[in-house]
Amino acid sequence: MERAEALKRLAKVMNENTGIDESRISEEVKFTDLDFDSLDMLQLVVGLEEEFDATIPDEKLAKIYTVSDALDIIQETV
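The chain above was modelled as a monomer; its predicted structure follows.
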């Protein structure tokens, strides 16, 4: 899957789960800069697993700090 397509789909999931405007989402953005808390991250992971029909391993979850990190994990998993 192309990284740009994965970013677009990730941004859609983030918007649906948290209401964050998709235009604010880029690879460089840190989830803390978007005021994500642990519940937001859990909702994001569940949404990504549904969107990409994949299971994100628990050990990978602690390594997600930026949108780029999430994209890396998506590309490794899908």
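The chain has a mean pLDDT of 92.
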